[in-house]
What we know:
This protein is mostly helical. It folds into two domains: 32-129, no CATH class; 153-212. Helix content is 83%, strand content 0%. The chain contains eight helices and no strands. The protein has helices at residues 5-17, 22-29, 33-68, 73-80, 84-97, 101-107, 112-120, 131-211. Helix 4 crosses helix 5 (84-97). The longest helix has 81 residues, at 131-211. The chain starts with a helix and ends with a helix.
Amino acid sequence: MIISSKEKEKRVLEWLDQNKSYREIQDLLHISSRDISFIAKKAKARKDKEKEKKRQTSITSKAYKLFTKGKSLLYVATTLGIEAPEARKIYMDYLDLKGYHHVGEVLQQFDIQTIRNFSKSYMGNDNIIDEKKLIEAIKISASLPKIKQEYNIILPQVQGLQNQRNNYHSQNNLLISKNLELQDGLSLARNRTKEYITELLSKKILILEHLL
């Protein structure tokens, strides 16, 4: 009976699990020991891959939980027993899931010292990044293009208002100067009026004394 390659692989693996020898399987399926070895290696590689995937999924899940609690990359790497590149990749994926992917993209462009300096701005007293501060910074950075556009629209209006202010300031200085001149003129007129009245009263007094 002719069977498919898929069925052959299935039977080979089943018989290997039952501890049948290569010779027995060769006689049953009429295939070479080389084919049997190839099927066994391919199955092992598939199992190893699935095992590594499960391990990675478990590590990633644990790392996400630690990052959510504010734990550092160093803490996560040492706690889970993973290398720095793997820890960084998981952290970047975590940022992406949190919606902070652009932060990760930006940080990848800088060296370690620059990243440390950046982080200091968002560190709390416990040396853990303050998520609220980071979110606020992200919101501001996301709105920068809009703010710049609004600034370019408002700038000419502001300059126009500044010109008006300067014009009003000049006019105000002129009015102040005129007011001071008027006050000086008024003061002079009052003094002259006072002198005139005083002189007139003196003349009247002399006339009255003469008549009496």
